[in-house]
Design a protein that fits this description.
Elements (H helix, E strand, L loop, with lengths): L13 E4 L6 H12 L2 E4 H14 L7 H10 L2 E4 L6 E4 L2 E2 L7 H11 L2 H15 L4 E5 L2 H5 L5 E6 L2 H11 L8 H17 L12 E4 L5 H17 L1
Helix pairs in contact: 1-9, 2-4, 7-8
């Protein structure tokens, strides 16, 4: 396997998987910053497609139409000081793709086999040069099965709902109880889908973050990476 760099400059690919609300995107971005790697938020790509389809009133049942439009979409992930910007056909949709409406529908679009194959191919192109941190639900098993470091981040449903609640505290009518139900349902859909279900890769390190804060999780994953590249 080709890898860029030698010695301490060796770059690897890092796959971070886990269920909804585990904090994967935040952690992956910070790990990438710490290592001077490129961060690829795969979930935002599915969210961008979901936002686009909802905007154009294309329901997930019409999978052929979804795929036709998705193949013509230009999705760009642009790193920035305040996090990654997500552009669709040149428009910054970052503020819109975390809405409750998108949260409630993204799993249904993500189950479309042709759409997953299309986005996986794009994600694999992004990782071809190494030095990438990628997070999602099937990175270690499907997107980057040869990633040198795989981490499966998890936490209790209650803790994941609490974290999401804090992120969305300004959403009108949102309750912690409803978020717990939504996350449990998202887990069921992600684990039960036929194409690339949520599961832990056999060679992944399982990291339960229920009792950990963000800096502790970042430090732990960075230490895994440095152990690997120095071995």
């Amino acid at each position: 396997m080709d890898r860029q760099g030698t010695g301490n400059n060796l770059k690897i690919n890092i796959a971070i998987d886990g269920p909804a609300g585990a904090g994967k995107s935040t952690i992956a971005r910070l790990v990438a910053n710490e290592l001077s790697y490129i961060y690829v938020d795969t979930g935002s790509m599915y969210r961008a497609v979901t936002w686009y389809m909802l905007k154009h009133k294309i329901l997930p049942e019409f999978s052929a139409e979804v795929l036709q439009h998705a193949q013509n979409m230009v999705i760009e992930l642009i790193p920035g000081a305040n996090g990654q910007k997500v552009l669709v056909d040149g428009q910054d949709v970052s503020p819109f793709i975390r809405s409750q409406e998108v949260n409630g529908m993204v799993s249904q679009y993500a189950q479309i086999e042709g759409l997953r194959k299309h986005l996986v191919a794009l994600q694999q192109q992004m990782a071809a040069r190494k030095g990438v941190v990628m997070d999602g639900r099937d990175i270690g098993t499907t997107v980057l099965p040869d990633a040198e470091l795989k981490v499966f981040m998890t936490a209790s449903v209650k803790e994941r709902a609490l974290r999401r609640f804090k992120e969305m505290s300004d959403a009108p009518g949102l309750t912690l109880e409803q978020l717990e139900k939504d996350i449990s349902e998202r887990d069921r859909l992600d684990e039960g889908r036929e194409v690339s279900p949520l599961r832990c890769a056999e060679d992944a390190i399982v990291l339960d973050t229920t009792q950990m804060d963000i800096p502790q999780v970042v430090e732990t994953i960075v230490s895994y990476c440095r152990t690997h590249t120095n071995s």
